[in-house]
Amino acid sequence: MTDRFSFQVSATDGRARTGVISTPRGDIRTPAFMPVGTAATVKAMMPESVRATGADILLGNTYHLMLRPGAERVERLGGLHRFMNWERPILTDSGGFQVMSLSSLRKLTEEGVTFSSHVDGSKHFLSPETSMQIQRQLGSDIVMCFDECPALPATEAEVAQSMRMSMRWAQRSRDAFGDRPGHALFGIMQGGVTPELREESAEALKAIGFEGYAIGGLAVGEGQEAMFGVLDYAPGYLPEDKPRYLMGVGKPDDIVGAVVRGVDMMDCVLPSRSGRTGQAWTRRGQVNIKNARHADDPRPLDEHCTCPACTGYSRAYLHHVFRAGEMISGMLLTWHNLHYFQELMAGLRAAIAEGHLDAFVAEFEAMRAQGDIEPL
């Protein structure tokens, strides 16, 4: 354990890196996938079960937690870690993305954003300063700058204007964050798909100085090819000695492609959301347990997987409980998906450390190309 926040790269393979982020609440092995606990819970999972999948860190959502149950209440009850019974590191996003995507009534100014809650319509205000205050009340270990997420599609001029305001907000976030030993503030690079704007954003963030740097404004519908096009150059604009976090990613092939391009951290709701809708992610790709082909299949989702869903239950059972609307369906499929995602991260870390990343990626792609096992 340590009393400060630090990052150490232990091995590289091409642009990919593996290492450790050290925090007072424990180490985060990188590349890291962060399960999303939007409202102080990873849906359908107990915290100890999330940890059992191999997760070192969770993500909480400032927007949702400020609305319900409220940051002041969480603070009174001992902070987010105690509140949700997760004593390892927590990263909280700034709330900016949700304000822009979930609130139909909002007013954006240089000062911040006034918006209506999607829960009850009540009026709220978020700015760099209030976002920092709320995240401090929650007690998160990694705090994200408050930034604007422009609605897409947008012109290059609109993206540039938005990015520059986000950089001004980044400075205000840094000033409001203050001196908090053991806690980290991450800046967020913006700039759309334009290299010059991405570089300008990165230079502005480096001039301010952060403990880590995120790549924002991707995984918002632009497609994998465009995302990888940005990741071919954007991580190189950021400091080599600080963590690089790609926000909101993603599918397994997105994750592998991002790690190959130098990304250290990712998050996505996909494993839990897919689990609740009957979708399982395996080394052979996606399985839709709703399909009738599984109704009489005694085999597991993945014979090589050691999660509870695969070691204790058949495809036939998983198909039945999903069709019957039983809660155990979402619980088992979510556990499987999170287990698979963390197994993928462990495989990537080992491959980078051993210098065998190309072979790992080739095997990953070959397995996915085979598709699911044939029906009985």
UniProtKB/TrEMBL annotation:
It catalyses: 7-aminomethyl-7-carbaguanine + guanosine(34) in tRNA = 7-aminomethyl-7-carbaguanosine(34) in tRNA + guanine. Its EC number is 2.4.2.29. Residues 15-368 form the tRNA-guanine(15) transglycosylase-like domain. GO terms for cellular component: cytosol. Substrate binds at D93, S94, G95, G96, F97, D147, Q190, G217. Binds 1 zinc ion per subunit. HAMAP family: Q_tRNA_Tgt (MF_00168). Homodimer. Within each dimer, one monomer is responsible for RNA recognition and catalysis, while the other monomer binds to the replacement base PreQ1. Catalyzes the base-exchange of a guanine (G) residue with the queuine precursor 7-aminomethyl-7-deazaguanine (PreQ1) at position 34 (anticodon wobble position) in tRNAs with GU(N) anticodons (tRNA-Asp, -Asn, -His and -Tyr). Catalysis occurs through a double-displacement mechanism. The nucleophile active site attacks the C1' of nucleotide 34 to detach the guanine base from the RNA, forming a covalent enzyme-RNA intermediate. The proton acceptor active site deprotonates the incoming PreQ1, allowing a nucleophilic attack on the C1' of the ribose to form the product. This is Queuine tRNA-ribosyltransferase.
